[in-house]
Amino acid sequence: MGTGGLGGGVMFIVIALLWGAVLVPAWFRRREFNAAERNALRLQRTLRVLAETAEVPQEVRVGATAREALAHERLLRTAQKRQEAEREAELASARAEQVRAEIRAQQMQRKQVAMNRAAKLRKPIVRRVRSFAALVGLLGIVGSLVGLGMLIAGIGPAVLLGSLLAFTVGLGTLVLLAPGRAKLAPIPAEQAIVNTVSDAEAFDQVVATGETRDSVAAHAAAQQAAAERIERARTMARVREARAYAPRENQPDSMLLREVREQVARERRNASAERGSVSEPAVADTAAERAQATAAAAERARAARPGSRLSELGVVGDTSEGMPNLDQVLSRRRNAG
What we know:
Blueprint: H1 2-54, H2 58-121, H3 124-153, H4 158-176, H5 189-192, H6 196-205, H7 213-245, H8 255-276, H9 281-304, H10 326-336
Helix pairs in contact: 2-6, 3-4, 8-9
């Protein structure tokens, strides 16, 4: 009986071990699989809901497109209005400039006409005509008064009509010969409607200047004088350039010429000494004295001008006495040195 109870306990322990080793892991794996399935289904459902929520309806998309088109159209209208405003400003500026130019030209024309008319009216014959017209007008007034009295007296209107005609002729002549009477075409009204402030400033700044014959003649004389001064300056420049490039004259007291003269004097002294044996002693003494005087004069000139030795290098002086062979002179100097 003890053995049967022991065998049943062992079987129970074996079954428990098998259940713990096989069934428990399978149960855990099945539970994890079910949990993963539920999580996958839950995640899929959530993604579907998010996709349905994020999808924009067709009505909303059409409304957004319409708003964008309206905003773009507003931007285009704003840009077009800005361009039109700039174009109108440019046109207004051009019209203002044209008006200023016309005003300036009109003022210059009026000034020129006034000057020409004043010049014509300053003639003696015009003054005489104006005086005669004034006298005729005055006589016409007096005659009109007399004719009016005669008309009242019943004599007749002939004197009154003649006086009125004379007064009209005299007055018309005075009006025609009046100074400063110049008719110019006015500027159109549509061109004058511009910025009044800028036009007023431009009108204040414009100064009419007319040129007369005297000013033209003075300008021509000034141009001719300037041309003469320029030609004189060019002539003086050519003369100075010719002087600068002109060859310098030989200086009579140059160092090389003095040495050549000394060499010639020594040769002459030697020749005189050679000829002195057969010639008179007086001739030799005279030649020696002349050579000594020449050498002394050269020494005095060299002592008097010590600073001009370097400036006189390479300058050839007077060669009227004859020019010796320079090669021989230089070879003698090299041999002596």
